[in-house]
């Protein structure tokens, strides 16, 4: 972080503190401490305004899958900019990049989806999903069947409905959220919430039972859908216990509740398969995706729906004259062209094969941290993982929040040259660009461990 003295005068940091409201930032300390200004990027690295190099251990925000200098994606954007820099999709207008990308998504989808709707962010995609679930049930003459069940610690975004789906209290407190008809069931975090002696399968059964009890309490005729990230990302990188989705989906089928997969982080190779839904055998009726869809080079997200849901939408559109939903930039040709090139590069360079190969090293290095005195749990799969810091390994006691173990460790790691993030408390996540090599993984973990050791020296 920039030192306070640099906030004097007309430095970029001072100008930032004077003019910019930062997302997910302590606005008060930012006024005196200022930003870290990133100037350039190449491969898995970014460089700050003083030329210091960092490994971007989180691919930005779990998104820049091809790193920070993929010329093919830059060229795709420039070519499309020259041809047609903008057009929209309202009133039956269309462009070739949007059509091609929709076809590609349907071809690689993990379920037999029928159609694709484009938006600009994961939050917009999930807000769209909420509206589609309501629209669909109205088309079926089921005006009562509207509640959507999410999970504690889920992350689905920040817009009004998406933040309501999110199960993290800071996104609700004083924002007057969640809105009505959004409920939260138990978080499938085995390390934190399993009972003594309970197996993963037994814990999964208890989570499914909690869901069933909630559906019965609310009334099955009022519950429309269940939404889940295959691996919960911003909630702490929580990997579901064995048989979790199998048991959850059995409950959903019993009560005619739709399954929505939020693939905003897991989609496009993160778990070693194209979709987290494939890794965990999820059969979604609706799927939202974003981030690695364009390697984050330009904003684009997508929602895929089943034929049944699309039929309901057509019926509603016949009734109302138009499907009255869409963004100015839905299907924008430039991000769509970059998204299409991203999908092609995934195939041309066998990114899935690469992820499966290098994730072995990634998982080994993560698991080697299990014995570290600060680490309570290591959770890792594919190229995503986190360590959970604890004050006492035996009792799993967390640090006093006043100690700020998570943010302190993230800062120590940044000083050591790797950008990680403290998520949902004291969990330090890694989710590097998918193009990372084995030797880069080693260097990333060397720096990560150095940051951890530096904080351990302060903690004990
Ligand atoms: N869903 C998941 C699983 C996410 O991780 C995120 C963002 O991190 C979102 C939705 C929201 O996406 P966005 O920040 O693009 O609105």
UniProtKB/TrEMBL annotation:
GO terms for biological process: biotin biosynthetic process; gamma-aminobutyric acid metabolic process. Gene3D superfamilies: Aspartate Aminotransferase, domain 1, Type I PLP-dependent aspartate aminotransferase-like (Major domain). Keywords: Aminotransferase, Pyridoxal phosphate, Transferase. It comes from the Bacteria. Transmembrane segments: none annotated. The keyword Transferase applies. InterPro entries: Aminotrans_3, Aminotrans_3_PPA_site, PyrdxlP-dep_Trfase, PyrdxlP-dep_Trfase_major, PyrdxlP-dep_Trfase_small. PROSITE patterns: AA_TRANSFER_CLASS_3. Pfam families: Aminotran_3. Its cofactor is pyridoxal 5'-phosphate. One of its GO terms (molecular function) is pyridoxal phosphate binding. Belongs to the class-III pyridoxal-phosphate-dependent aminotransferase family. This is Aminotransferase class III-fold pyridoxal phosphate-dependent enzyme. It comes from Sneathiella litorea.
């Amino acid at each position: 972080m920039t030192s306070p003295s640099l906030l004097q005068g007309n430095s970029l940091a001072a100008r930032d503190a004077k003019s910019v409201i930062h997302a997910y930032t302590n606005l008060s300390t930012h006024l005196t401490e200022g930003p870290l200004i990133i100037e350039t990027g190449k491969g898995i690295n970014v460089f700050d305004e003083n030329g210091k190099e960092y490994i971007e251990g989180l691919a930005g925000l779990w998104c820049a899958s091809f790193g920070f200098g993929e010329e093919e994606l830059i060229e795709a954007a420039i070519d499309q900019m020259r041809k047609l820099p903008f057009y929209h999709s309202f009133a039956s207008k269309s462009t070739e990049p949007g059509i091609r990308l929709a076809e590609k998504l349907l071809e690689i989808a993990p379920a037999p989806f029928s159609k694709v709707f484009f938006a600009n962010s994961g939050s917009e995609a999930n807000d769209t999903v909420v509206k589609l679930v309501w629209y669909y049930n109205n088309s079926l003459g089921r005006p009562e069947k509207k509640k959507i069940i999410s999970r504690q610690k889920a992350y689905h975004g920040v817009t009004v409905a998406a933040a309501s789906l999110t199960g993290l209290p800071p996104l609700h407190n004083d924002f007057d959220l969640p809105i009505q008809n959004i409920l939260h069931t138990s978080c499938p975090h085995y390390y934190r919430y399993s009972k003594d002696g309970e197996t993963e399968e037994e814990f999964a059964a208890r989570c499914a039972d909690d869901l069933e009890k909630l559906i019965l309490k609310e009334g099955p005729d009022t519950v429309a859908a269940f939404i889940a990230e295959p691996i919960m990302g911003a909630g702490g990188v929580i990997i579901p216990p064995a048989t979790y989705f199998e048991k959850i989906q059995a409950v959903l089928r019993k009560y005619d509740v739709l399954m929505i997969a939020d693939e905003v982080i897991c989609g496009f190779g993160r778990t070693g398969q194209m979709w987290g839904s494939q890794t965990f055998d999820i059969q979604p009726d609706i799927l939202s995706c974003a981030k690695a869809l364009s390697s984050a080079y330009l904003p684009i997200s997508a929602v895929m729906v089943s034929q049944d849901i699309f039929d309901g939408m057509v019926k509603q559109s016949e009734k109302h004259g138009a499907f009255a939903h869409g963004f100015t930039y839905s299907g924008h040709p430039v991000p769509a062209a970059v998204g299409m090139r991203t999908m092609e590069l995934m195939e041309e360079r066998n990114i899935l094969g690469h992820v499966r190969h290098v994730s072995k090293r990634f998982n080994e290095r993560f698991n080697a941290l299990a014995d570290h005195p600060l680490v309570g749990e290591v959770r890792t799969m594919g190229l995503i993982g986190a360590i959970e810091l604890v004050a006492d390994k035996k009792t799993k006691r967390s640090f006093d929040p006043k100690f700020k173990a998570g943010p302190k460790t993230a800062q120590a790691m940044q000083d050591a040259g790797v950008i990680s993030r403290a998520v949902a408390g004291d969990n330090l996540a890694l989710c590097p660009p998918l193009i990372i090599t084995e030797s880069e993984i080693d260097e990333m973990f060397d720096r990560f461990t150095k940051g951890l050791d530096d904080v351990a020296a302060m903690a004990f």
